[in-house]
Write a structure and sequence with these properties.
Length: 161
């Protein structure tokens, strides 16, 4: 089976090291991480440039995986990525990453479900899109289940086309 193409959505400053561990699992094909200095250049280019970058990088992806850390749900561009994923009919899911150890920050508190803020035709998005908590053994659980979670998210999204 071909690897799914994934766009990862996350809070860069807090969670980039946790996200890199998930990227390194290797069962899926994810977007290339943007380097901090590239992100800073992009930020200086303004909101329209960032939104274009997001749309361009999300364009040929099968699914958007929101990696949920402590502050992810309130990040402006994470919200934009969720909105774009749904509008572009991408599979969409969340995975809590608070139990993934970060060399810089250790573990963090569990963040809010980022899908709590949205409705689709009167149905709360958090009743459609799953946000998984892999528990204390997060890395191993994610390694074992991420591929099936992505497949399920793509199947669920097709029901709402």
């Amino acid at each position: 089976m071909a690897k799914k193409k994934i766009f990862y959505s996350f809070h860069f400053d807090n969670d980039v090291m946790r996200v890199q561990q998930i990227r390194n699992i290797g069962v899926i094909e994810g977007n290339e991480p943007v380097k901090p200095n590239e992100w800073e250049t992009l930020e200086r280019s303004g909101e329209a440039a960032i939104q274009t970058w997001i749309r361009d990088n999300m364009a040929n992806k099968d699914c958007v995986v929101v990696l949920v850390g402590e502050k992810t749900a309130n990040r402006k561009y994470v919200k934009y990525e969720i909105e774009q994923a749904w509008a572009k009919k991408k599979g969409l899911l969340g995975i809590y990453i608070h139990n993934i150890n970060c060399a810089r920050n250790g573990k963090c508190s569990k963040g809010s479900n980022p899908f709590d803020q949205y409705n689709v035709n009167g149905t709360p998005l958090n009743n459609i899109v799953k946000c998984y908590d892999p528990g204390q053994n997060a890395y191993n659980t994610i390694s074992e289940k991420i591929e099936s979670w992505i497949d399920e998210a793509i199947t669920i999204r097709k029901k709402y086309n």
